Amino acid sequence: MTISWIDWVIVLVSILVCFVPALFLAKRSGSSTTEFFASGRSVPWWLAGLSMVATTFSSDTPNWVTEQVRRYGVAGNWQWWAFVLTGIATVFFFARLWRRSGVLTDLEFYELRYSGKEASLVRGFRAVYLGLFFNCFIMGMVTLAACKIANILFGLAPWQTILLTGALNVVFAAHSGLWGVLVIDMIQFFIKMTAVFAAAWFSLVEVARRLGNSDSGWLGLKLLVEKLANQQVIQGAGDAQPVMAVRDGSGQPILDVLPNFGMSELALMIFILPIAISWWANWYPGAEPGGGSYIAQRMLASKSEKDSLGGTLFFNIAHYVLRPWPWIITALCSIIVYPDLASIKAAFPAADPSLIGHDSAFPAMLKFLPVGFVGLMIGGLIAANSSTILTHLNWGSSYLVHDFYRRFVKRDAPDAHYVNAGRLSTILLYVVAALLSLTMSSAQQAFQVLLSIGAGTGLLYIARWFWWRASAWCEIVAMGMSLVTSLAVPKLFPDAGFAMTTIVQVGITTVAWLVTAFVGPQTDRATLLAFVRKVKPAGPGWTAVRAEAGVSDAEVAHENAIGASLLGWVSGCVVIWSSLFAIGNFLYAAGDPSRTPTAWMLTGVLAVSGFLLLGVTRKLWAESGSR
Questions:
Q1: Taking the chain, what is the end-to-end CA distance rounded to the nearest angstrom?
Q2: 41: alpha, beta or left, given left = phi > 0 and alpha = psi -120 to 50?
Q3: Are the CB atoms for 553 and 539 separated by under 8 Å?
Q4: Neighbours of 201 (CB within 10 A)
């Protein structure tokens, strides 16, 4: 790929614009652990929301989306679109509860909600389990994507990419704390969005050149839709690659946003499992049932309940509405340009064959960017990588330092000691993540591993807010059982697909922790009473405890507004899905005018649901005030 001096100047400017402001925040971030890990609990809603959406837009995200589209058609995106249900539930049911709890990290919550040594055990274990293993696994996914992109674009070996990105990210994560991460995220969001829209447009231009002998992106869109409207993808048996063929009902239509339900196994994996089970049953960072991880970190850093709610709502709308279609359009164009893996390898003969997969098609499409936009895209990809890595370094460090080292190893040191420990832990985390990245092969593989290890724990993370019987022992059993079943079930049922394996895991793990809730040791009553007085959780699961704590149902109803929250949840989900699919149908209408009525119908649904959502949000916003 030819990169001009103009592109390198744009790359340099992009990096400077993103990172230089963070240099001035070191003094403030280093003043205390609250500043370093939670920005002094003074983050406004718009900055919290921008940071959330920038963090979840990583260098591996467009790669992963591209792989789904090439393997399963556009409908493959339901594997993450289903988590709209989780995200909007966090907005209306959990964001204010998290902020009300007043904890510094979501793991500190365990010793607020549970009692005894088991509460400390869960907090300490999850600090290492999530902060080190899970966190580094996710950073490994992101680093793998960076290695694939750099190998395609520059011919860099993985170790070279790891050193270059690591030097940039570790220095800034250790230097500026969460304040630096938030500011970098805010700037990077706009650079990344501009870059992916450019990638989609010039991908359409390349399609127009190949199919219509033109340089018009609009013509490229028309020809793209006309070409793929009659195409389907047929899954190969075993490790065989998917095959594109003329649509005849035996495969998944590429442009359809719903799966071909005649293909039961495929429909189960990409739609039925995510929409019926995964969103509430599986733990996955950024889309946790009940909120958690770096999303909880931003909510806890917000300056009020109002800002926590507003930031999380903004994040979900931007995450699911603004970003998907540029990625999807680029992925669809890649099917025309690179119909199989062999064509990618032929176009990039110097690339490492072991790194070439369907997720490589996204960086492969970047070769068609003109001068100037190449630099913008490289800057955007560096920004995408950094926003996620920086967040995970700070988030993981907060777990290791605040929830493990400070809690169990050295309790009485000054704040400066723990800030320095946090800075050192960022180096450890990146080294582990870099080593893990070398063991991975594709974004989809890593995604399924994460879902598998957390299968069955999600309902518990919801229940602990609404049911007093949820205990630390339930958490211990759920974590242990999900890990055991992730290893055992695939061996016991080797012929079962990922979807069926996940369903079995969810069933076993959920039953195990539910039984523990009734027969295992219970949380100390004094802890439950203190939790109710502070957080004021809703639901019949707390009725007896609330009465004993002297917290009235009227007070709880006012604080939580469950009826309004339910309306907000439903209307919020409808707003996101209707707008997402309205945009898609308007795009498809360029080559298939029959899509236009559907697009306008969805726009009408968006208008009604948006009116309801706005009313609910204003009500809850006003009631939250400055709390």
A1: 53
A2: left
A3: no
A4: 18
Give the Cα separation of 134 and 450 in Å (integer).
8
Between the alpha carbon of residue 331 and those of residues 61, 145, 364, the distances in Å are 12, 15, 10
Summarize pLDDT for 36-89 with one digit per residue, the tens: 655 556 788 888 888 888 777 776 788 889 999 999 999 999 999 999 999 999
Residues 6+ apart with CB under 8 A from 408: 120, 124
Q: Which two tokens stand for residue 405?
A: 């080292």
CB 280 within 8 A of CB 459: yes
State CA 107 to chain mean position distance: 19
H-helix segments, 302-372? 305-317, 324-337, 341-347, 361-365
> What would the DSSP string read from start to end of 252-305?
EESS-SS--TTSHHHHIIIIIHIIIIIHHHB--TTS-TT--HHHHHHHHHBSSH
Contact 137, 284 (CB under 8 A): no
pLDDT at 456: 86
> What are 233's strand-pairing partners?
244, 252
Mean pLDDT of all residues belonging to the chain:
85
Closest CA relative to residue 170, chosen from 438, 425, 381, 437 = 425
Cα dihedral 321, 447, 300, 482 in deg (nearest 10):
130
Instruction: Note the pLDDT of residue 222.
Output: 96
User: Residue 342: is it exposed, middle or buried by C-beta count within 10 angstroms (0-12/13-18/19+)?
Assistant: exposed
> Is 595 a residue whose pLDDT tops 80?
yes
Report whether pLDDT(617) > 50. yes
Q: How many beta carbons lie within 10 A of that of residue 375, not counting itself?
A: 23
**Mean pLDDT (whole number) for 366-392:** 83
pTM for the whole structure: 0.86
> pLDDT-derived band of residue 626, with 50, 70 and 90 as boundaries?
very low
Q: Which residues pair with 246 in a beta bridge?
A: 231
> What DSSP string describes 67-99?
HHHHHH-GGGGHHHHTTHHHHHHIIIIIHHHHH
Read off the tokens for 70.
């090439």
Lay out the sheet containing 231-234: strands in order across.
243-246, 231-234, 252-253
The number of C-alpha atoms within 13 Å of 420 and in the hemisphere containing its C-beta is 5
